[in-house]
Amino acid sequence: MTLKKWLLVLALLAPGLGLIVGLIGVAVYIAVAQSFGYYNLSGESGFSLDFWSDMLARKVFNRAVVYSIYVGVISSVLAVMLAYPLAIWLRKPFPGSLTIGAILKAPLLVHGLVAAFLFINVIAYHGILNQFMQGLGIWDAPKRLQNDRAAIGVIILQVWKQMPFALLLLTGAVQSISDDVLNAARDLGAGGFARFRKVIAPLTVSAMQAALIIIFIGALADFSFQVIAGPTNRQSLSQLMVFFKSGGRWNDAAVVGVSLMIIAILGSGLLAAVTRMTMRGRLA
Amino acid sequence: MGGISARNLRMEFDGFVAVRDVSFEVASGEFVTLLGPSGCGKTTLLKMISGFLTPTAGDILLAGRDVTRTPPEKRDTALCFQSYALFPHLTVMENLEFGLRQKRVAAADRKERLDAVIGNLDLSLHLSKLPNQLSGGQQQRVALGRALVMRPSVILFDEPLSNLDAKLRDQVRIEIRRIQRDFGLTAIYVTHDQAEALAMSDRVFVMNGGRIEQSDTPEDLYGAPKTSFVADFIGNANVLDAEVKSVNGAGIVELSTPIGLLRAACSGRPQGSKIRICWRPEHANLAATGENRLSARVTHRAFQGHFTDLHLNEGGADYRVQTNMPGIREGDTIAFSLRPDQIVLLETVA
Q: CATH classification of A59-283, choosing from 3.50.30.60, 3.40.50.300, 1.10.3720.10, 2.40.50.100?
């Protein structure tokens, strides 16, 4: 391409992609620079590794890293695991399938905060679930379900919110597999699970990777579900970042923010690689 | 190996009857073709035999065992799909051994079966390729190989040559028949191409409207069709309405037709007085030396290489004859004769 054409392409991309790259680029630059001591709003600015070394030595930070990875991985894997059978079920249209598909995708339209508050109402100490279980005689007394230590509430909310997105990606991929290919596998002796393992999953691996990565990043950086329904004895990385920022410790917040970005990139790469390797093992 | 037996098979889809009370027997090692126009029920019948459709009524027996409700993965059949249906993410070798691994065939046996098929189908140079790196003919051979390594009792073909060009189709057709014979397989082959059906089959089942209209050897089907549909569908035929005038003791029936009085050979007495008859265009003898001498004006002429197709009109009826005399032109009046044994009596007309 000539220089003129390159300039034309760049000019065309500038209003959309250019703005995004520009804004994200500035934010990333500021965050990285602050994590190394620059743009210090409460002290002297200058290159320093102190913020990183202090943060890495903090127990609360390391717990937040483990906790966020735990929520991110479990939520993404569960959402994809739930979305697959639904995508296969909805692969062929049947009476009512459009309505079912629309209902399943409805959580995409509900704001996370609204969902979190609804969920809290359901599992609260005097909430519907406790009343229901007591009414059935299964529980003698109400149980404390809110803000559980294993973050099951957060994971439920993440899966509820993110599964439709995985479904959206996987439905298209599953629909693109021809009937003949699936019938051929069946004709050659493959049962339902073998067809999934050896044909459907390998042929939809790209959609699976995309769903896992996008959901992982979203859940890893979750703030609203964690604040409302998460455990009170540990913080997610985004919660920790907001905590530092609220205290005016911008450089510490930047270290957490950059850590979050690094974990998101490495985690996504790892998830993609693991998925690909698992599928490769299933091919033969 | 085993044969196939179908008893009163019926398939309905929301009130639409796709297959109507079909019964047939296919002997072990026999090559049978289901032939018919689009929508006649041939693929539905094949899907019932392969297990992808469960019949609304009737039974299917493979090697004497009732498999009517047995799912495809548990049937001893292998299906070659029209689209080949190769697994696009697997190499040729992985495609070939897919079924063997599913059935947990021992490694030594697997190798022996694969070697035999790879050698037979000349696939050794392509084993590490993906399907999208193969030509149509090569893909077809892989699909065939994938079915053959399973050593099924019955192999089923769903229009496997329809995506190939004419020359390749001829080659693969011969190859399929050779392999079917070599492996002693019972084969059911679906096609709407009558030339393919006649060239390949031990027997042909001609289907129409969900029924088997006639099942016969290719020679009998062509030489002695039982209905005007079969006569018209298999090759070219001149089908005419006729009225029976008389039947003599020598098995000759005298018929009044729109093109004149004809004498036809008949083994028994026709079922009714109004019937349909047919004769093949190539049976017209333009030397006009025998019985049933007729003359007609040529309305259209089409040179076909080794013969010339002549469209004729006489008494308001259009029909055609074939000749190897290319000198005849449109507008000419020609004379020809027909042997009584070449005129076939078909169904009665209500």
A: 1.10.3720.10
Outline where chain A has alpha helix (H): 3-13, 19-35, 50-57, 59-89, 97-105, 112-123, 128-136, 152-175, 179-187, 192-195, 201-203, 205-220, 224-229, 237-246, 250-283
**Residue B186 pairs with which residues in a beta bridge?**
B154
Q: B87–A184: do the CB atoms touch at under 8 Å?
A: yes
Return the SS3 of A89. helix
Would you say B148 and B179 are in contact if contact means Cβ atoms under 8 Å apart? yes
Q: Which of A86-100, A235-249, B11-25, B155-169 has the lowest mean pLDDT?
A: B155-169
ipTM reported for the complex, 2 dp:
0.81
Over range A27-51, report the average pLDDT.
92
Which residues in chain B are contacts of A188 at CB distance < 8 A?
A: 73, 78, 98-99, 102, 146, 150
Say yes or no for a CB contact (<8 Å) between B85 and A186: no
Contact B78 A187 (CB under 8 A): yes
Edge-to-edge order in the sheet of strand B186-191 = B77-80, B154-158, B186-191, B31-35, B203-208, B211-216
For residue B339, pLDDT over 60 is answered with: yes
- Contact status, residue B277 vs residue B224, Cβ threshold 8 Å: no
